[in-house]
Design goal:
heterodimer, A: 489 residues, 15 strands, 31% helix, 10% strand, B: nine-stranded antiparallel beta sheet, four-stranded antiparallel beta sheet
Chain lengths: 489, 351
Amino acid sequence: MRLFGVVITCLILSACNNTDTTQTTSGKSNIGTSASASASASASASLGKEAELETSDSWLSPLGSVPEYSQRPGDAQRGREALFNESYVNCGIPERVFRQLQTSFQTSNDLPFSTNRVIGKTGIPVVSSNCLSCHGTSLFGELVIGLGNEFADFTQNPSALVERAGALVQGAQEVAEWERFADRIAAIAPYIQMETVGVNPAKNLTFALIAHRDVDTHEWLPEARLPLPSTQPPPISVPPWWRMSKKHALFNLAEAREDHARMMLAASMLCADSIAELDNIDQYAPDIRAYLSSLEPPAYPFAIDTALADQGQVEYERLCADCHGSHAGGLPYPNRLIAIEDIKTDPEVMLSSTDERGKRYADWFNQSWFGQRSLAAPALGYIAPPLDGIWATAPYLHNGSVPTLAALLEPKTRPTVWRHLVTDTNDPESYNTQDLGWRHERLQAGSYDLNDTRVYDTNRLGYANSGHTMGQELSPEQRLALLEYLKTL
Amino acid sequence: MTSGGVLPQGLGNVDVLALLSSSVISDPERGTADLNNRIADSYPNPSLQYATQYYALQPAYRFEYWVLAAMVRDPNSQQWRWQEDQFVRFGVKARDGTNHAAVEQSVSAWEFGSIVGHQSTTYDFSSARSETFVQADRLALGFAEVSENSMSIGSTELQVDGSGCNSVMSIDSPAAQHQSLQWQVDTCVESLLINDTVFASNTASVLNGVGWVNHSYGQLPNQAGAVFIERSVIHIAPDQQLIVERSRRRSGQGPVTVSGFIKRAGVEQRLRGVQWQEEQLPGNRFPTMITISADGLAEAWQLNVPADVLNQRAESPAGQQHGVLATSTAPDNNEPRPGIVTLYPRTLVGS
């Protein structure tokens, strides 16, 4: 699936549903409360009971511990099926065209795991992206559902790819399906192109879609009504889904609060053109959430020196557990948001969500159908994530700027410019068991081919590898032990 | 399970010809011995209609794709590799009561036996230079929607006698000013004897050698998609090509996209910031100059589009003007050589 890794990967972040049932709201209202449609994000002062810092911007979430919100219950098994079969994204490439392209590239006849076959609005089948285009990776021969795709290629103009598929559409239905999809991709394309493979534009993508959606009816607006986001999307490394059983809020800024299920479908802005369609998707959203929360990280597949790991555990409890939670019966995962001034990692992701434009997107969200159950309220800092399965989620930090755990724990060794060497995540040789991360090479700043999209240059805006210096005081022996311990999480 | 971990590559590496030929059934035997039977076998779809979108009454069609490759030597024993790709079109109609097909003249916009796309590459081992000669009918590339007269690049004759043997194809390409290709293909033998006369710098050289044929056929690839793709291929150094593509919708709406890549030793690297600009001299219906530039290229490439090479009769019902398959002048001596893209080394800058 060389081709559609890209075509589809970049395309769809969304849920669409074409069925005409006019059910209005889901009956499953086990959620405690939900913000009213008009509630501004500032509403709950109660959100920040344990705030360490008061912020003057009242619409933002306070730093410190994120409170827990009750979630609608769901059926994990049904959620898994929904993920792969439901038409939560109902726009895409007509299936006939998709398969024709597949054949001409001599790929397998099976649809890639990152796609769903769904019925488009004209009644013909289309191939659309599912959540796994960003949230699934084939790792050492097995599909790991929920492991962020750190090699997805968002460096191309997705509109050019979709337009080219348009050379093959035939007949009114195919043209209509393709055009609907292609028009939307064309509208958002300038805002979702990355400098380097692997990093993800999902946030900018959502912002661009918000700008093109009517807040009340959710209809598509060919002309954007809100300011559009930056054409240099801040890079994001996709977090693994198995953290969801521990996290009280979604995303790096812990901005996605209250009902997680609906928030996950914030993605559904590409194709869902009415509230009725959204309501439909929302019926099984709690099942998908339940499934995500049931996921466990993959075990480290190579050798572990358990005696050394035991020594590392001591270091972990001493230096890391305060923020990331203990895995040895100590402090459970504390859901802590750390101020940007303290963590000092790249601020761009945070800035783009909390500046004036970011506020307008959050306002839109909170006033829309999504805000009826969920709340968008970012903070001026980053969440310290649970470190379960951390060996598998390289590269590290929210922007994927640090290629290995070893480099993360020894900041002076972090490469300023580095290049992915991995072409196949199924090949165990692609993984560096010494430093814990995917194989890469260090490059000289300023002396590489600018066209090479495998190069990660930390000098670019948003791509900095600064901050999170915890661990730099460790002795080499202590660091080795800690690394060994991290393999066991 | 799919190879989801492999770094995906985009349509950027897709050849337009691959798109065009995507519905061509690949010949499993890779030979041509029983061409006729296979044409007959491939017929059981009499309802096949060629592109009604072209606003003309169209009969059933078959589409042929030939690739001929050869190693040849000139009289000085200099070695050349030569490859010829052809799209050939001819109509096929079943004879009643037999399973043999007959080739018939059609009333299509394209004449029976016309070559609708044609590309030949000559590779000179001594200087490691290659030269590509490209000609294509606008229709073939989907650039135009209707054509009153078919383009004929030289003349083609295809004789099939029904036995599957003694089938002979000869193609003469006088349209190419620098080169006249004449060869015969005996479809009963897997390898062919090549007899070719090449005119270079007004000198005729006879090339002799052996070659191989790949032949595919099938339904006509979809021509009438919603998007036109224009493409330029420039040989910028030995085994290095600059390939730039532009897409535009038939509807005239929607985005115009341009993308490009450099192909070195078969490996493609996408370029950032690719631009495609056109100029049109007064009195011309098509752009006469295309300028291609990219962030990583030291200089922009200018492609001259001579009026006489491609089928200028192509015209859309809406009176839209369409671009052409880019061809270029030879940048080394500025002498216009229609349809020829000549190798010319340029420096690529990193930074």
